[in-house]
């Protein structure tokens, strides 16, 4: 079997690193926190050692709350807005992200977002457009929809950290949620997701959503079946779904990851050595990153 492309949800990992490592445990000599940077680099090193990719790409949120998704569902991520359309991000993390991106550039790991799209959409486009196998790395449940055994796409779900990855194929998604991976977006639209400001269908939880999908198919098939008096819906469920027709029509495209994003040119091949060793050395010395940077570079050769 050929070696995989690791398609990494960078915001998912650096937020996890920031919250998982105390700031006082990872600082410069001047007391500047670098916990998110060190944690992220160490996560990448562990992923490279354990998954043995030959390609690696980091996806970014060029637009964390795209206008087209907000137009469809105005509550989408609204609770996470700090001001205007700016995401609420801890100040000490916000300062670390540009340094992390400089470090990745010096090493030779492509990291990019695309205007008007979230990192999820970049990952979705990589998953369907790059040669298989592709392993998507994220703590975002929405990306279970990308799992495709026939194509060789897996989700390395790090909801409990990179050390406790769930290596998700179609069987795992079905066992975990009771729905096939291809219906995960439909399942999420009905169930809702408070972390993304998606209300779901009132009174329809995970089990009911899974049963509906098992019987009828996705949201479009379920809504179509509402017009059939012999479709077999329980009266209460039919009423709830009927009242949510407009919401479901809007929520489904919000929940679906885009797979046709216009990506920039990039070289995903894992570097055998840092692309700009002088820049990497300067960054490592300035930001006290030598240990993490060395472990990542060593992982390339391992």
Automatic annotation (TrEMBL):
Keywords: DNA-binding, Exonuclease, Hydrolase, Nuclease. One of its GO terms (biological process) is DNA replication, Okazaki fragment processing. 5'-3' exonuclease acting preferentially on double-stranded DNA. GO terms for molecular function: 5'-3' exonuclease activity; 5'-flap endonuclease activity; DNA binding. It comes from Actinoplanes xinjiangensis. It comes from the Bacteria. Residues 3-272 form the 5'-3' exonuclease domain. The lineage of its organism: Bacteria, Bacillati, Actinomycetota, Actinomycetes, Micromonosporales. This is 5'-3' exonuclease. InterPro entries: 5-3_exonucl_a-hlix_arch_N (IPR020046), 5-3_exonuclease (IPR002421), 5-3_exonuclease_C_sf (IPR036279), DNA_polI_H3TH (IPR020045), FEN (IPR038969), HhH2 (IPR008918), PIN-like_dom_sf (IPR029060). Gene3D superfamilies: 5' to 3' exonuclease, C-terminal subdomain (1.10.150.20), 5'-nuclease (3.40.50.1010).
